[in-house]
Amino acid sequence: MKTYQVNDEGFYGNFGGAYIPEILYQCVEQLKDNYRKVLDSDDFRQEFHSLLRDYVGRPSPLYLAKRLSERYGCRIYLKREDLNHTGAHKINNAIGQVLLARRMGKKRIIAETGAGQHGVATATVCALMGMECVVYMGKTDVERQRVNVERMKMLGARVEAVTSGNMTLKDATNEAIRDWCCHPSDTYYVIGSTVGPHPYPDMVARLQSVISEEIKKQLMEHEGRDYPDYLMACIGGGSNAAGTIYHYLDDERVKIVLAEAGGKGVETGLSAATIQLGKLGIIHGSKTLVMQDEDGQILEPYSISAGLDYPGIGPMHANLASSHRATVLAVNDDEALRAAFELTRLEGIIPALESAHALGALGKIRFRPDDLVVLTVSGRGDKDIDTYLKYLDEYTTR
Fold first, then answer.
1. Which domains does the chain have, with CATH numbers?
2. Residue 59, preceding peptide bond in cis (omega within 30° of 0)
3. Which residue in 69, 170, 378, 383 is the catalytic one?
4. Where are the alpha helices (DSSP H) in 115-269?
5. Can 212 be counted among the known catalytic residues?
6. How far is residue 349's CA from residue 185's CA, in Å, rounded to a whole number?
7. Does the annotation count 90 as an active-site position?
8. 219 touches 361 (CB < 8 A)
């Protein structure tokens, strides 16, 4: 049977690997040599799962959304990552990586963030464990996610506003890598998604796989079976999607549907639909699909969602799309907004704009009445309230 997991060289099919500057070679090799030993050790697993239970509040609920199900003619369960401490799935990975960093003797933590949820999660764990924390965030995102910026500062992190490029996630990642190059010995870079050089994509997917591990158990309790017909999640870099599908990758009974940010439309030049628009290239240490021009220069992405406007995609997801294991749909800004307001009014749940893209994909699939669907709500919408308020009248009077 074909497997969609990473191989020993850090590749998912044709995608992945570690393309890094020489100054970071030792850092990445040290991480590659240690991450599986630490993650698989009894003491790490005990501390990690104890914190997930007692600090994060896991397991997150699997909620049967009855009114949403009626709207789309199937049975839709929502995996409620929005109910985690800090308001998103990002805390799962942040706890795991900071625990790993501490075991590797690192004293200083750096991170990049787009929507701010990974930055908040990393700052939270650093506060918990008494570690120095610096978070790089594009100036554009600093302005549109100001509440998360203040949360990070309150937690004791230093937030560095990045003014290069279009001042969003790609540019924040660039600056974080520059910092890492300048402080390779004492600094640990907590990457927030399934991107970057091997072993980061695999490590983040493993730490987030608690999501699908719980889905299997919860579906058995709710439905008497441990697999859905459809798994749905949004993808930017792809961490919540990786966690949602991890334990189902090789289960062909389960259809995987991923929603990327279409922006104003894939043909408009204002999009972050990497699977639709990307070509094979290298970005931030990984060979994957990248939005780029004919000269190989990276194109600036656009999305109303700060967490999805990334011009690359995790190598796991590039492989799933190219091998047709996953169906990847581009969901435009207006479709995501409409879906967010729909969930709010039908179920009393305000989703993050990122999650709204997964919800926006529901209307693009023809479900059967007996289909069982699990959709991950990756985060809550508190951080996006200013954006939602701009469109409140337009999308709630239709």
1. 13-51+90-203 (3.40.50.1100), 57-87+209-396 (3.40.50.1100)
2. yes
3. 378
4. 117-129, 139-144, 146-154, 169-182, 200-208, 210-223, 239-245
5. no
6. 44
7. yes
8. no
Tallying the residues shown for the chain, one arrives at 398
Closest CA to 244 of 145, 367, 341, 374: 374
Nearest to 93 by CA among 247, 240, 248: 240
The answer to whether the CB of 308 falls within 8 A of the CB of 331 is no
Question: Nearest-CA neighbor of 71 among 336, 393, 367?
Answer: 367
- Quote the CA–CA distance of 386 and 145 in Å, as a whole number: 9
Cβ count near 217 (within 10 Å): 13
112 is catalytic: yes
Catalytic residue among 79, 90, 106, 287: 90
What is the residue-level pLDDT of the chain in tens, covering all 398 positions?
568 999 999 999 999 999 999 999 999 999 999 999 999 999 999 999 999 999 999 999 999 999 999 999 999 999 999 999 999 999 999 999 999 999 999 999 999 999 899 999 999 999 999 999 999 999 999 998 899 999 999 999 999 999 998 899 899 999 999 999 999 999 999 999 999 999 999 999 999 999 999 999 999 999 999 999 999 999 999 999 999 999 999 999 999 999 999 999 999 999 999 999 999 999 999 999 999 999 999 999 999 998 999 999 999 999 999 999 999 999 999 999 999 999 999 999 999 999 999 999 999 999 999 999 999 999 999 999 999 999 998 887 65
Greatest Cα pair distance, the chain, in angstroms, is 57
- Which is catalytic among the residues 79, 81, 106, 112? 112
What span, in angstroms and rounded, lies between the C-alpha atoms of 381 and 129?
27
How far apart are alpha carbons 301 and 291 in whole angstroms? Answer: 8
Q: The pTM is what?
A: 0.96
